Each structure stands twice: as structure tokens, then as C-alpha cells.
Amino acid sequence: MSQQVRVRFAPSPTGPLHIGGVRTALFNYLFAKKNNGTFFLRIEDTDQNRFVPGAEAYIMEALEWLGIAPDETIGKNEKFGPYRQSERKDLYQKYADDLINSGNAYYAFDTPDALDAARKLEEEQGKTFIYNHTNREKLDTSLVISTEETAKRIAAGEHYVIRFKTPVNETLHLHDIIRGDVKFDTNLLDDKVLFKSDGMPTYHLANIVDDHLMETSHVIRGEEWLPSMPLHVLLYRAFDWEAPKFAHLPLIMKPVGNGKLSKRDGDKMGFPVFPLDWKTDEGTSSGYREKGFFPEAVVNFLALLGWNDGTEQELFSLEELVNNFDLNRVNKSGAKFDPEKNKWFNHQYLIKQEDAKLAKAFSPILVEKGFNVEESKLTKIVSLIKERAHFVSEFWEMSDFFFVAPASYDEKASKNWKAETPALMQELISVVEEITDFTSANIETIVKDWMTKNEIGMGKIMQPFRISLVGALKGPHLFDIVEVIGKEETISRINKAISRL
Ligand code: GLU
């Protein structure tokens, strides 16, 4: 095998891509880029019963959106194509035959009923049935009938599967980059099905053949595939191929309690477990994109699920991740998913965005509400509110008072409206009316000078002033609001509050 790093993401298109799958894709991407290698996407669709239309396009779109698109895949640099296993179908039979011929695999003709009976028999004796060396010679396999008989039955169209003949009495000492040394006792493995008489390989055979033909140097995948590692290594050995190196990524765990993160956790706690919305007849499963997450934020929080660079740094651009990524720094233990922390990441990326860009994203929301706001004004508003926001979708709620006068006044806040307030507010109007340089700092200086000169306490003015403009005790710096809404609107809102409170 060449020293060139070639890694793959090999999802089965059985539905929307779970965020755990996205993390696997990301770690492969980072590892490839870090090592000047190639990241490719292979679609493992040999199981036609589980095939879901649209899933493949969804996977590709998700990787594009995140900025971690593969270097090679369907329709892109097809150097080792096809990249869809269903289109490679004709290629696998030969490899299954090779294993038969080398004595590493055998035909099994057992019907479902016969297998059920065999299972029951074992269970009656208090044992669990495993299709392996303990049983394979008692079952209906080519190991116990002649070659001629086997050929005759296959020619007659009998259904069969080809199973791997797992070697006995061996301890496999394997190495995983993340887990270190791992041992497997071959006697405990079952003889997995590799190929079926309908001409389709199973995942195991197709995966190994393709990783070999596509010159995969490292297999980086989720921990749920660790139990398949001994079979895969034995298959490489049976073919006399050099095995790639393996790295099994830790599970992503629920935010609370134990166990793997599931879609149900997301539904219950109100966060997506998919990168993009996934629509079916039963409804929509929400995605990070449509929830208003920035792809950079999603990439950042996923990178930290099971990996860190050894420092306290949490914010990483994709480029920094590529530079710092190291499989040796991936943890063995499960990584807890923290939806609140994910929002924090989005906030961090939001405040880093240019105000004008955020204004552009906010604009359609305003248009929908019936406001056509001038670009420079909107940019200014965004600059005043973004420090407190996690998402652009929160902007309206945080800034509606810039566009409309309050329709009502927050009850608690109105308690600050005292008997003497109307008269003070009238005086404030006269002060505001006289201001010519209507900029935040200047308005503030003039209003505060007036208060000092007349010995009026801050609280007596500032809170009622804010209530008049905003309707509640919230929002950015008061004089910034005054500047943006302008003199006329400020006065009109104070007058309205005087008459209504
Ligand atoms: N098709 C498998 C999956 O859906 C690939 C596992 C592997 O990476 O070997 O995850």
C-alpha cells in the first residue's frame, strides 16, 4: 500500500445523516487534510431493503453546507469509481469465489426454518446459538457435502449464502489508533454472511473489497463498528491484502443520563440531531442549518466531541482544526452532547460576523413583517443587538422597538412610572427638542447635564424614558436607541407614554 493518506466516509443511505455520522465525516476530512491526503465519499447501498430515496443527496448537501465536501465521490474526480456500491455489484462475486477457493468461506444452504430449529435445539440445552465453528459442520453447508453436490444444488437454483470460515483457537492482537491494543478471541466470532445468492454482497465483503480497491489507508469510523474489526482484519488476511489502519471514534452520548444520543433526546429537549431539515410524509425532523446555526459553529462543536488539542482553546476555524487535528488526541470514552454549549458556539460565530452580513440575513425577516429598512440603519441596529443573540432568528424579538412604537408597556416596568413622571417627561421632551447634533453620545451628554443641573436622579428619568421607547426595561444602550429612531419618533413615543401610563 502506498504511504498516501486516503480516507473515506462510507454511509449507508438509510435516512438523514445523524450528527454522529457528520462527526465521523469531519474527522476523516480533518485527518485527510492534515496529512495532505484524500477524503472520499462512498455510498454503501448494498442493502436495498433499507435504501431511502433522497438520503444520498441529503448526505452530499450536508457535507457541502459544512464546507467538508469530499475530494472524490459520485460525479467528482471518479478515480476509483463508481463510488456507489450498487453500481459495483458485478465486481464482488469474484472475491466471494476467491474466498471459497482458498478455503476461507463456504456455502450455506440452511432455510430459515432449519435455522430456527437449530436455534431452538441449542436454547433447549441452555446455550445460545452461534453460527460458527461449533455448529457449521452440523448444518447444511458445503463443508459437509461434496464439491459436486454443492455445484449441483447451486446450479439447481437453491438459495444459499456464502459465509466466512472464521479460524479457530486464535487470539487476534489488533491495534486501534484511538483504543490502543485490542484483543479478540476468534472462537467467539460468528461466521458472518458475505454474499447472497441474489448476487449481492453484504456490508462486510463490499466494505473490505472497496477499501482495498480504493486504496484506503485508514478506516476512521464510529465505535459501533469495533466488533466488526476482527472479521475485517481476517478478511484482509484471507485475501492476502494489507489491512488499513483502524481508528474507532467514541460514541456521542445523551446530554443527560447514560446512553447514545438519539433523535428522541433532540425531540424532548428541542435541539436537532441532523445537519439539515429532513422532510417525510410524517413531518419534518429539524436540522442545524434551518435552526439558524452557522456551518462553522457546527463544525467547531462537532470537532470537540471526543477531541481536543490539549489546550483550553475552544474556538477553532476549519483551517485551525486541520492544522491541529491529531487522531492520537481523540478520547476513548463517550463524548457528552451539550445543546446549550452548541448555542454558545453559534453565539461566538454570530458576534464575529460582519454587521452588514448579519443585516442581510435579518432583512428578509423584516420584509416579511412589512418593514423595508435602509441598509445602513439596519447594520447599525444589528451592531447594537448582536452581542446578546445566539441566532439571527432572535433579532426581531430583540429589536422590534427600533421599528414600531410599543403597543403596550410591561407591567413590572410601568411601576417605575410615578406621579411626578409625566411632568419630568414633558421637560425631557423640551430638552430633546433642542438637540441638533442627534448622535448617541451628544444626546447622552445633554440629557445628563440637564439632570445634573436640575438635581434630578438618574432613575427618575432613565427608566421611564426607556419604558416610553421600548415598552419594557430591556434593549441596548438607551441613547443608541434614541439616535436610531430619531428625534421625532422619540418625542412621539414619550408623548404616547404620558397619555397612556
Ligand atoms: N456503511 C457503514 C455505515 O453505515 C460504514 C461503516 C464503516 O465505515 O466501515 O456506517
From TrEMBL:
Record-linked Pfam families: Anticodon_2, tRNA-synt_1c
Annotated positions binding ATP: 263
Residues annotated as domain Aminoacyl-tRNA synthetase class I anticodon-binding: 358-498
GO molecular function: glutamate-tRNA ligase activity
The Glutamyl/glutaminyl-tRNA synthetase class Ib catalytic domain, residue ranges: 4-342
Coiled coil region boundaries: none
Keyword presence, Ligase: yes
Record motif 'KMSKS' region, residues: 260-264
Cited CDD domains: GluRS_core
Domain of life: Bacteria
Primary localization: cytoplasm
Family according to the record: Belongs to the class-I aminoacyl-tRNA synthetase family. Glutamate--tRNA ligase type 1 subfamily.
Task of the protein: Catalyzes the attachment of glutamate to tRNA(Glu) in a two-step reaction: glutamate is first activated by ATP to form Glu-AMP and then transferred to the acceptor end of tRNA(Glu).
Name this polypeptide is given: Glutamate--tRNA ligase
Organism encoding this protein: Flavobacterium turcicum
